[in-house]
Amino acid sequence: MCGIVGYVGHRNSTEILLDGLRRLEYRGYDSAGLAVLGGRGVTIVRAQGKLKALEEKLKQHWPQGPLGIGHTRWATHGRPSETNAHPHQAGPIVLVHNGIIENYQELRHFLAKKGHTIKSETDTEIVCHLIQQRLYDGLSMEQAFHHVLGELRGSYALVVMNTNEPGRLYVARQGSPLVIGVGKGESFAASDVSAFLPYTRQAIFLEDNDWGMLSASQAVFYDRKGNRVKRPLKKIVWNQTQAEKGGFKHFMLKEICEQPRILMDTLANRTVEKQKRVFLEGVAKVLKGKFPYNKIYIIACGTSYHAGLVGKYLIEEMARLPVMVDQASEFRYRRPIIDRRTLLIAISQSGETADTLAALKEAKSQGAKIISICNVIDASIPRASHATLYTRAGPEIGVASTKAFTTQVAVLILLALHLGRGQGKISSGFVDEAISALLRVPSQMEWILKRSKSIEAMAKKYAKRSSFLYFGRGVNFPIALEGALKLKEISYIHAEGYSAGEMKHGPIALIDKGMPVVVLAPQDKTYEKVLSNIAEVKARGASVIAVGTEGDRELARHVDDLLLIPPAPWYVTPLLESIPMQLLAYHMAICRGTDVDQPRNLAKSVTVE
Ligand code: G6P
Q1: Model's pTM, two decimal places?
Q2: Ligand 1 pocket by C-beta < 6 Å: which residues?
Q3: How far apart are CA 409 and CA 411, in angstroms?
Q4: More confident: 500 or 95
Q5: Which CATH number do you get for residue 505?
Q6: Is residue 601 part of a domain?
Q7: Same structural domain for residues 348 and 433?
Q8: What's the pLDDT band for 602 if we cut at 50, 70, 90?
Q9: Ligand 1 atom at shortest distance from the alpha carbon of 356
């Protein structure tokens, strides 16, 4: 996830672009850059690190010109560096991009054959060269841009300038956000309205596949086929902070709601339908050939630890390999049995958690091979690993982790499929079905999000309760732990997650009249047993809130409140169940008036022991 901004008008664009980038910095901050077109041609200034580094550089030379584009980066392809920072240029084409071009390898080969020299490791630079190539082929700029959009697979928001066309910006959107600001004699393009709110409150929200041109006085848009389209002009009534949150009240809610789109990015170019295999860039070398490891450890902390627990069920079932999951803080002070035949998977959103990093280093020094699953490119944990699978969730601002968790689980599903196939324990047909099931998840998540009003009402009903129990079995057990953790973290309500089978060994003693018990009850192989557990807690007076499968009338008869998820295979349900768990915790916190994004005593990244 990156922040992009473009300006065409009557003022000097450097100030406007920088101001916009400052407001977009929450979207990414590992490098930044801008390009300004003035009387003396184009000036491009880029810097690695936070926006401050770019500002320092600009002090030496402040570009002048009424047309410009800017970018603040969250690395996906290519490490954070000045060379990989945007804007990218090929001849007269200079552009900024947010998203992932899935077929960039293929396009890179094509361009190399045509004699283009690609300087960066990014997928973005390819787009500049492609447009340049189509200009060489004799197309006009407008035709070239439209043609190239048809060649790209993946997600993008693009703002492009052609240095031979001062006064004009080209824009396009597919899967990544792009909003146009319409001012008096000036136009803006940005990832969100916060970038241009001080200048105009008139905005046009582009739809997927829209593309077009902006000048100081005009904005023209087309659809994929090239037909002219009109998009309504909307007046923005949000204040600045709301705007950064895309109109959502909290970053946490925004991050919950963006999971369908984010998940598409996580799966992008790793799953191709009908290919019967998953593509895991980065770990190929470590996992190549016959599996040389005799055991797997997964280590992590907090929410990432719960993702690790899901990983155990997935890998053991699909690949039939033994997996032990440890909290990193425990692992590092035990004497785990590690040798060269140990594969250790470290999971971390931030890539900086002190315990996870220390445990990883310890295991590495004893000969283990290390794969990390991480969100932040080039953070300490990926740097200390032999290979990394990035979750591509974009910056997570809310302290309570949401989208980082579901993307970790998605990556673990892919890894389990990869290992399962490598071990010959699952068929290519199974992988094929799993890929189709995974690709359905974003729309299934949308389905759940659309029905979230009922969760709000439910939260009101239970918000005054002081204690909750969460039960799940099998792969749903870690989701019970995670659901309880979310509730504790942001609403400060006491909550315990248990495996439903363990209930009779203690927690059942807590149940009295009206005690809320959240039960994960999808229709998988543990369903019947979970129904019995529900009967047992109901008999003791509990109020049961169940998460069940759409159309499950039997379950509806036995519970007080029912949250639905669409039917899905067992290994996909953790992704779907997570959404009602997150929303329930969120709305409970709202009812109790707590600080959702920055709950007391917690930190986003724990970099001390
Ligand atoms: C903190 C955060 C949690 C997170 C945990 C592990 O406790 O508040 O949300 O799950 O650290 O962080 P990591 O970055 O390693 O996933």
Answers
A1: 0.83
A2: 301-304, 348-350, 353, 356, 399, 401, 602, 604-606
A3: 5
A4: 95
A5: 3.40.50.10490
A6: no
A7: yes
A8: confident
A9: 15
